[in-house]
Design brief:
This protein has 177 residues and is α+β, with helices and mostly antiparallel strands. It is 60% helix and 19% strand. It has one domain. Helix 2 packs across helix 5, helix 4 runs antiparallel to helix 5 and helix 4 packs antiparallel against helix 6.
């Protein structure tokens, strides 16, 4: 069984993120308005709108890099070899040894960044911590959907990370099928 990262997955992630933002639009608006008008630390330009956009892109870029580094770190803890890369609008990490990883360990790889960054954002004061939390949560939609998909597979499944997504295999003797 294979799980492919496709335009459909990206569309579903976008729809879920959009619905979250729609439901929380007043809180998100207030958060960004507070950051825009009450944050002297981010005074890069004289134009408030440009300042806000530069700040968000900068924060999101840093959070995305840290997010992928956490994926890679957890892969390495489980003995994997990783490669980092970029595809159009997003960064990714891929385990390249081809060694199967137990489903539970792969779930930890998928969920570690959203968990670690969410907990860490609690300790960052003010609006910045909340923005980091929201941007990481929205950027983790694909990981959360893949984890949900994996929870439907057998507890004895193994995962082989592929360029297109991942394959779910079963261990039979010393081989995987």
């Amino acid at each position: 069984m294979s799980f492919k990262v496709s335009w459909k997955l990206h569309a579903v992630c976008f729809i879920i993120a959009f619905l979250f933002c729609l439901i929380e639009q007043e809180n998100i608006y207030n958060l960004f308005a507070n950051m825009l008008f009450h944050n002297n630390m981010m005074s890069i330009t004289g134009t408030e709108f440009i300042k806000l956009n530069i700040s968000i892109v900068l924060i999101f870029s840093i959070v995305a890099c840290i997010h992928e580094l956490i994926h890679g770190f957890v892969y390495r803890i489980f003995g994997g070899k990783v490669r980092y890369g970029f595809k159009v609008l997003y960064a990714y990490v891929q385990e390249v040894s081809g060694n199967p990883l137990h489903r539970t360990k792969f779930l930890l790889v998928l969920l570690a960044p959203v968990t670690i960054i969410s907990v860490a954002s609690i300790f960052i004061s003010g609006n910045i911590g909340t923005i980091i939390f929201i941007l990481n949560f929205l950027g983790s939609m694909g990981d959360l959907l893949m984890a949900f998909y994996l929870c439907k597979t057998s507890e004895n499944s193994y995962i082989i990370d592929k360029e297109y997504g991942f394959d779910v295999v079963e261990k039979i003797g010393n081989s995987y099928k």
